[in-house]
Amino acid sequence: MNSLIVVTGGSKGIGRAIANRFVAEGFDAVVCARSVDGIHEPGLLPIAADLSTRAGVNTLLDYIQSLNRPVDVLVNNTGIFHPGQIHNEAEGTFEQLMNTNVASAYHLTRGLVGDMITRRKGHIFMMCSTASITAYTNGGSYCISKFALLGMSRVLREELKPHDVKVTAILPGATLTDSWAGSGLPEERFLKPDDVANSAWAAYSLSKSAVLEEILIRPQLGDI
């Protein structure tokens, strides 16, 4: 039976690239997003759920449990971005971004990590951002959520060390996904989703005794 990876936000962009890369290496991939219409490729197991809600996380966990297969890799990639500043962003922005970008990863990890600990095997990827380490004036609650996600990654790393479960935070800079549609910037100013996917596979491929704790990837020409 193929190993199993779970990728949230897996219908497009970075998440889809990671799912495709691991499938190409012999995995089956559970891909979760609010909409998974049109995903029929071999090796991809689509499930629709809104992970900004606890009910949505439970929907995904129930589906994974129904497969009756161990999860070898979890990629907490679900995330949204709203530009703004703390003093003027719309009411509710903070709660929406924290629920989507942070709480989803917290609850999903808690739901799956127990089996990884029991089996002493597993790899958790947290899709952070350069916004996890560099504040910017139009980042507002997005930056807060990404700083929090990196903090969670570091806490998990310490907690899971003795259980042989690896934790890797990936911090990509601007990546050519739908989020940058219409920007008018040339492609060479961006990372490609496959760059991030290849980095995740490289981290997973290390020996059991080694872990890439944090991967910082920027466009060659620097941040946008």
Defining key terms:
alpha/beta, Rossmann fold, 7 strands, seven-stranded parallel sheet, 224 residues
Describe this structure in words.
The chain has five helices and seven strands. The chain has a single domain, classed as Rossmann fold (3-Layer(aba) Sandwich), CATH 3.40.50. By secondary structure, it is an alpha/beta fold.
Task: Describe this structure in a few short sentences.
The chain has helices spanning 13-24, 54-67, 93-119, 140-160, 193-204; strands spanning 4-8, 28-33, 44-48, 73-76, 123-127, 166-172, 214-217. With 224 residues, it is α/β, with parallel strands linked by helices.
Secondary structure layout:
Elements: E1 4-8, H1 13-24, E2 28-33, E3 44-48, H2 54-67, E4 73-76, H3 93-119, E5 123-127, H4 140-160, E6 166-172, H5 193-204, E7 214-217
Parallel strand pairs: 1-2, 1-4, 2-3, 4-5, 5-6, 6-7
- Average pLDDT reading: 96
Query: Describe the biggest sheet?
Result: 7 strands, parallel
Model regions low in confidence, pLDDT < 50 over at least 5 residues: none
Supply the helix-strand structural class.
Answer: alpha/beta
Distance between the termini: 43 Å
